[in-house]
Each structure stands twice: as C-alpha cells, then as structure tokens.
Amino acid sequence: MADREEFLEQMQEKLTDVVRPYQQQQNRRQRMADFVKQCVRCAGRNDFFQLDELLKSKMARDVEEEDGLKDGTEFLAQLRAYADEQVERYRIQFIEDLKMLAREAELPIEIDFPRIEVLKGIEGEVDFAQRKTVINKKALKSVDPKRIVTALKRVKQQLYDRPYDPQAFIDKLYHAYAEILKKEAREIGHPVPMQQLYLEHVLSLQSRAFFQDMDKGKFRGYSLDQFAVDLWRYFQAGIGGTSEGCALQLRPGRNNALWLIDSDGERRQITRISFLNKREKGPEK
C-alpha cells in the first residue's frame, strides 16, 4: 500500500514537472495576446496616453521579439510613433493652457514638466498616464488645467492667504522650545527633536476648551505643509530672531526628520532645532 502511494506521488510530481514549462509558455503567450488586444482597444478609443505607456513597456519589446508575432512589429512601431507625437502635442498645449490659467488666477506658477510649483511649499506633479495630478501629496484625479489651477489656488489660500505675523510665529515657536527644555531641565541652546517641537507647537495652538474636552471638532489643525510655509515666511521676513533676542538654528539629518523649507527655500529633512543667543548664533539652515 505504501509503495503504491509512493509510486503515485512520484508520478504526480514528474508529470507536473513535465507540464510546467509548457504551461509557463502558454501563460506567456496568453499575456502577450492580452497585451496586443489591450493596444487594439486603446487605439480604438484614441487613448494615446495609455497607448504610449503600453508601447514603451518591456512587454512591448517582448511581443516584438516573439517569433509568432513578428508580423505585428511594424504596426506597433507605427502606433508608438503616433502615440508619442500625440502625447507631445498635448503636453505643449497643456503647459500653455496651464500657464495662461495660472496668470488669470494670479498664481506665480513654475513648470518643469511634469513638476509644477506655485510659491514655496506648493508643489505638484502631473501624471498623464494615470490621469491624475498630485499636489502636496494629495491626488487630484484629473489632468484638466482648469481643475489643476483651481486646486492650486485652494492650497495657496490655505497656506498663504491668512493673517500671518512672523514675529508672533517665531516667538510662539521659541516658547514651545523653552517649554520642552523646562520639562527636561536643560538650558536654552540645547537642541531638541524637530518632531517633538512640532507636537509641542501644535498643542500650544489649542484652545482651553480643547484640553477640557479633546473632541476632534475642537482641535485646531496645523499641517506640516503649513508649518513649512510659515517657517519659510519667517526666513523671508528677515526679522532676525525672537523678541527675547534668540536666533533659530535648524539641524538637517535623516532619522526622525520632518521635511521643511530652509532659509534658502530648499526642502530639507530637519531632525533637530535650537534657539541660541545671537552672539552664539551659527548659520541658519
């Protein structure tokens, strides 16, 4: 009985090994056939974005090298040239329309396609193939210039079009910093983790009612994008430091960092922050 079961098990394994390469070849051919059918569908609805992406993929190269599909190589090449031309034509028109609409909305847009920027801290990237535009890490499911400009304008209103006092901002940040040092019995000038200061600063913005009842409806949100922009606007103001006579110093790094905007307007990962007496001040980053 045991010998019979062992024999049958061996036969199963051997036949499986025999059929596996055949099945893999069949699967490979089916994937290629499906790919060609997908190209046909895209051509039928003039979806040149998707067609362009398909015909620049590794699968397209595999299809063109497949002996059984050699007759289609010329047609795929013609479609590739067509799709490439259409995408380029659309891209040029898209950029022109985006610039025009941005001017009308008084947005100082900069385009280095596919990337776009409107003021420091407002960044986007256009993805034609996926029909989406990502603005400050939030996806807009559209590549319509009108919708993109509307979304950019909304972000600008959130980050820039509100009362802002650089002196009040840096003083509040300093007080949050001093509060951390007080709890840890450390002197002014000692660096603290950027994430810890951000949390302390956000808590300092909350109302007394929030601490009595921490319902989310009472919470005053303060996004990292807002923090980065406020920090940049402080640097731009050139006021030189806190009312107490202390200057800000940021320390870049990678571990437990926050992406902020430094005094040069560059996005950097900042790990630690300190405030120094001006006579001890190092270069702001």
What key attributes describe this structure?
285 residues; alpha+beta; five-stranded antiparallel beta sheet; four-stranded antiparallel beta sheet; single chain; disordered C terminus; flat
Write down the overall geometry: flat
Q: Determine the number of helices (DSSP H or I, runs of at least 4 residues).
A: 9
Mean pLDDT: 88
The N- to C-terminal Cα distance equals 79 Å
Instruction: Tell me the fraction of residues in β-strands, as a range.
Output: 15-25%
Low-confidence stretches: 281-285
User: Considering DSSP H and I runs of 4 or more, what fraction of the residues is helical?
Assistant: 40-55%
Number of strands: 9
Class per helix and strand makeup: alpha+beta
Sheet having the most strands: 5 strands, antiparallel
- What is the succession of H and E elements? HHHHEEEEEHHEHHHEEE
Radius of gyration over C-alpha positions, nearest whole angstrom: 29 Å
Q: Main sheet: which strands, in order across?
A: 1-2-3-4-5
Q: What's this model, at a glance?
A:
This protein has 285 residues and is an alpha+beta fold.
List the helices and strands and how they pair.
Layout lengths: L1 H43 L3 H8 L2 H8 L7 H32 L4 E4 L2 E4 L4 E5 L4 E4 L2 E3 L4 H15 L6 H19 L7 E2 H11 L3 H5 L11 H14 L8 E7 L5 E4 L5 E11 L8
Antiparallel strand pairs: 1-2, 2-3, 3-4, 4-5, 6-9, 7-9, 8-9
